[in-house]
Amino acid sequence: MEEAFVIQTDSFQITQFEFFIRLLISAGIGFVIGLEREHAALNEKGENFAGVRTFSLVVILGFLAAFVSEIYTPWIIFAGFLATLSMVTVSYWISARKGEIGGTTEFATLLAYLLGVTTFSGFIQESLGIMVILVVLLSLKVKLKRIIGQITPSELYAFIKFVVIALLIFPFLPNETYGPYAVFNPRELGWVIVLTSGLGFAGYLLMKFLGSDRGILFTGILGGLVSSTVVTWVFSKKSKEVPALSKNCAIAILSASTIMVVRVVVWVSIFNRELLSGLLLPMALIFITGIGISIYFYKKQETQAKVKTEFPLGEALNLKEALFFGILYTGILFLVSYANQQFGTKGIFISSAIASLTDIDAITISVSKLAGESLSISIAQNAILLATLCNTLVKIGIALWTGSKLLRKYILIGYGLIFVAGLLGFVILNY
After folding, report:
1. 265-322: per-residue pLDDT in tens?
2. Which of 96, 120, 146 is at the close of a domain?
3. Which residues have C-beta within 8 Å of that of residue 341, sequence separation ≥ 6?
């Protein structure tokens, strides 16, 4: 039995079943937005002109306006929007006369109308996504005010610099290759710098506003987003200063280094997804082992006196470091290409091991970029896995050199199991 069409034209068609499903979704979108607004009004002991019922009706109005416009004229959508805008304007005028300046609910009402239109048109996932963002923004009013109040002028300036680089400079870089081996591409270099500085900026903000008061495990995870090597250095030194915190410091180091694996997977997925098929399982083994050890140590740790272990924030936006990383990335591209041409497979592995002594991200991106072109997929996968383990060795050395005696014990146990997982990953990858 064929489904009955409510509308069936060359450009648009909708069945009765789809019509009622989309209508219910529209009503649900209005209900969720209205629920948040009504709850906010109760908490603030004030009044909003629109609550659950009003928002539901506004979204349905947009839905029906889009429906009728398909039958008659698209101008009906515009007329419905003007009617909603008039209602919002009157409400704002009345509120302003009472001294209540603020148009959040009014703007939300206009967006609710448009969500009804987009839902009828079939953009259901998009409408639901916008609804989620809208509700989150509306519900974070108090937290956003508190966060904005804590932002320093230097942090605001850092944010402006990042926006300028990401939106005004990066898009205009030439997307062409230059130099020996044709590996230097200004657009790709800019992309690496934007990603690196953006990751550091995001990690800085997380550390600033979430802090380490929720547990040292969370501190290590957040620190790992910025630099697991820095986390290793800071908490190794801390264990020497306060030996009683050695287990806690080991947790921070191991969890930060485990998050490094996530960074590797992210870079590979961005620059060459073809590598993921072979790398995903070995990296998952390392990650699960590392996070499992961290959680085990965390749950088994003895009750200890709380000692302040704040992670140093450093600069909000370290462009010098990002630029250095970009230059390092380009240099590694040349190094890997040269080693591949002169020494074959052996040269790639040697250059990967050497490059990983300073940073795992640069070699990961470089090898991912060359995989499938001047490098085979299997060699690139092995090089990345080798670089990951070599970089881990560097951090083991830091911990053993600067850490307390008890920290060394935990690090050797933790990283011993991680290396077993890494070697098993090599076996899985190659056999």
Report:
1. 888 888 888 888 888 888 899 999 988 888 888 877 655 445 555 555 566 777 777 7
2. 146
3. 181, 374
